[in-house]
Amino acid sequence: MSSSPADQGPESEVPGGTVPEPEEAAISPVRRHGPVLALFAAAAVFAYGLDQLTKFLVSTGMTEYESIPVLPPLLHWYYIRNSGAAFSIGENYTWVFTIIMTLVSAAVLVYIRRVGSLWWGLALGFLLGGALGNLTDRLFRAPSFGMGHVVDFIQLPNFAIFNVADSAVVTAVTVIVILTLKGVAADGRKRAPGDSGAGDAGEAGK
Length: 206
Hints:
Layout: E1 13-14, E2 17-18, H1 28-61, E3 67-71, E4 75-82, H2 94-111, H3 118-140, E5 150-155, H4 164-181
Antiparallel strand pairs: 1-2, 3-4, 4-5
Helix pairs in contact: 1-3, 2-3, 3-4
Organism: Arthrobacter horti
GO molecular function: aspartic-type endopeptidase activity
Protein name: Lipoprotein signal peptidase
């Protein structure tokens, strides 16, 4: 029985030429997609779960505007409810931030299917977990649906009061900026300096 060209090895002789071996670069992102999704999901669940747990403990164990020294004078718990964005920016525009966080969460869930880098998966997981953490407050806390005030409680000297979700978002953005500056694309490839994206300079993302 004769074998087909595909069965004769990576570069088997066939009439009119050879059958080249598929380039590894074309399959590498697919091979990594499972671990990337697992890390993405773990980071999102961790950030969201820790955010909601700490907010529950603060809102049930403290009164508003109460301050508790943790590592004085560096760190205090100071319970406030914030109608603005992260770090109390843009108060009185609560509904705008509710829409923005909804769009960000949806965009991350769509984009993650294209990611082949573990670091990008980690960053986007933290971004989703942080966005959903504050979005949950917007939707389900007082004074009303979609207009809820976010629980903030982490106080540092000469700095805004924030929460775990804010920290997760800032961490995600920091990692994304570093990856971008290092030329690591979301698909897991590292671009050569000055590369416009037409070619790859090797694998990255781990």
